[in-house]
Amino acid sequence: MGIAAMRHRFAEKADRFVDSRFMSARTFQLICAFCGIPCSLLFLLGFVAADFLAPVKPWWGAEQTAHHYQVHKTGVRAGAALIGLSAVFYMPFCTAISAQMRRIPNLHHSARQLQLSAASAGLWTFMLPGIILATTSYRPWRDVNITQSLNDFFWICTLMPWPTFMVQSWVLAYAILVDRRAKPLFPKEVAIYNLIIPCLWTPAIGIHCTKHGAVAYNGGLTFWCLGVTFCTQLFVESVFLMRAIYYQPEGGEQLVDMFPTHNEKDLEANGKDLEAHGPSDPDSEPSSTGALHQQA
Q1: What per-residue string of b and e applies to 155-165 under the rule 16 or more CB within 10 Å gives b?
Q2: CA-CA distance, 107 to 139, in Å (whole number)?
Q3: What share of the chain is helix, strand, coil (3-state, %, to 5)?
Q4: 248 Cβ contact list (under 8 Å, min separation 6)
Q5: How far apart are CA 159 and CA 108, in angstroms?
Q6: Is 0.70 surpassed by the pTM of this model?
Q7: Residues whose CB is less than 8 angstroms from the CB of residue 201 and which lie 6 or more positions away in sequence, other chains included
Q8: Which stretches within 221-263 are classed as H helix?
Q9: pLDDT tens profile 66-124
C-alpha cells in the first residue's frame, strides 16, 4: 500500500471520528464542565499525600518544620505534582462557565470577560503552590530556616489569593440573577450559594498576622472552612454546568441578545407585534437584536 493510499485512509477515519458524537460541541463542553471535579479531587489529594491534613503548625520551630519535609519527602513531592496537575483541569472548567454564561440573555460581554480574567489569575493559586512545594521538597536537608520560609510561603500563597475566586463566584451569581427566563440556565439557589460561600473565605486575608487561632494558616476559618467550601463549590458547579450543557440545543452555545438593552419580555412582545402587523417598512433590514433573538 502506497503512502498516498495510507494517508487517504487515515483522513477518512479521522473525518468519521470528528463527525461522531464523541467529538461534538456538547461532548467537548461536558468534558470541560466535568473537569471541576478532578480539579477539586487532585487539589485535595495533594494535601493528603503531603500529610498536610492537618497542616504544619505555624508556631513550630525551623527544625521541627524541616523535619516534616525530611520525613515526608516522597509524599510532599507527590503532593506538589498533584496540586500542580489540578491546574490542568481548572482551565477547561472555567472556560465552560464562560461559554454557558454566553447563553444568558441581556448579560453584557464584560461579565464573561471579568469571569475569564479572574479565572486566569486564579489559575496561579494551583500552579504557584505546587511549584513552591516542589522547590521545598527538592532539597529537604538544606538550612532549616530556608525550609521554614518556603513552608510559610507555600501556605500564604495557597490560602491568601481568595479574592480572585470571590470575583468569579460573584460574577457568576450576577449572571444567574439577571437570567429572568421562565426556565433559567441555573437555579437561583446557585446564585445565592456563590454569593455566600466567598464571604466565608475573607478571614484568610489575615493569615500573615498570627500564628495561633482560627485565622492562622492551620486554623478552622482559614484552612478547614476555606478548603472544604472551595472544593465543594467546584464539585457543585460542575454538576450544574453539566446539567445546563446537557439540555442546551445542538450546535454549540445558543446565541442570545448580548447587550443589556432589552429584557426577554420586550423581545417576545416585539416578536408577537411583528407577527400580527408585519414590519413597518418592508424594505428595511431587521435589527441586530431581533436577528439575534431569532437565532436564539
Answers
A1: bbbbbbbbbbb
A2: 50
A3: 75, 0, 25
A4: 26, 100, 103, 254
A5: 31
A6: yes
A7: 162, 165, 166, 225, 226, 229, 230
A8: 226-246
A9: 999 999 999 999 999 999 999 999 999 999 999 888 888 888 888 888 998 999 888 88
